Amino acid sequence: MKKMKIFGLVLLVLSIVILSGCTAPQKTQDTQYNGKNQVKTLSEIPDNAKKLLGIDPLGNDTDGDGVDDFNDSTPTFADVTPQASTGALGFRIQNILVENNYDEVAKKDASDHLELVLQSTTNKDIHNMTAYYIITDAKMNKTESYIKPLNAFVLKANETRTIHFDDGQMQDHFRANPNSIYYTTKDELNFTVIINADGYAAQTIQVKKDAGGAEVPD
Ligand SMILES: [Ca+2]
Ligand SMILES: [Ca+2]
Fold first, then answer.
1. Which of 16, 39, 73, 164 is most buried per CB count within 10 Å?
2. Please, what is the Cα angle at 68 between 188 and 204, to 5 degrees?
3. Nearest CA to 84 among 196, 193, 187?
4. Which ligand is nearest to the CA of 76?
């Protein structure tokens, strides 16, 4: 599938999803069609088709590698590996959680999601942090990876703060792909997370999500 243009995959899925008006689309170029029931833009792909494709219905570049989903042959795998930031130690990843079902800050239940506790070790605020995480399902032999700039996030001097990857609706929460294997499989998953910050040494952590898991608060 990784070798297959998503455009081709879109057509395959749409042929399943769109059962009416079966006029065969005429391909005019790699990313566009003309005529009835023909996809012209990424926004025209139905959400249920995006689910089958495993991409984020709210985003145009699910994996954050700069290539929009429509033209990305690997829409859930960042083809560009971010260069690790270098410099003095400015922060640590104090903890990583993948099955926590309670949000201490919001004080309410939460579905399984990726969660990191970042600890500043400097007396300066740290801006421009980026998360890069890789999820591997050995059973399915499938790997996804995502580049997520932590927009507007500042790790203040000497503070410890938790960031979440979920629906991204609250402060310090960032959007994760809801159609990721994180949510669509109960296989054991292995995570590697790298946090980059301009001027500071990149930090890496790994964690395993047990098979089964819990996709709803427990
Ligand atoms: Ca992409
Ligand atoms: Ca990609």
1. 164
2. 40
3. 196
4. 2
Q: What per-residue confidence (pLDDT) applies to 136?
A: 98
Measured in Å, residue 72 CA sits from the centre of ligand 1 at 5
Q: How far is CA 89 from CA 156, 162, 192, in A?
A: 14, 18, 19
In angstroms, rounded to a whole number, what is the distance separating the alpha carbons of residues 14 and 85? 41
The answer to whether the beta carbons of residues 130 and 147 sit under 8 Å apart is yes
Mean pLDDT of 154-159: 98
Compute, in angstroms, the gap from residue 39 CA to the centroid of ligand 1: 18
Which pLDDT band, with edges at 50, 70 and 90, does 17 fall under?
low
Q: How many whole angstroms from 55 Cα to the centroid of ligand 1?
A: 10
Ligand 1 centre and the CA of 147: distance in Å? 9
Helix (H) or strand (E) holding 35: none
pTM confidence score: 0.81
Run of H or E residues at 11: helix 6-17
How far is ligand 2, taken at its centre, from the CA of residue 43, in Å? 18
Amino acid found at 70? F
Round the average pLDDT of the chain to a whole number and report it. 84
Structure confidence at residue 109 (pLDDT): 75
- Closest by CA to 9, choosing from 72, 80, 61, is 72
Amino acid at 54: G
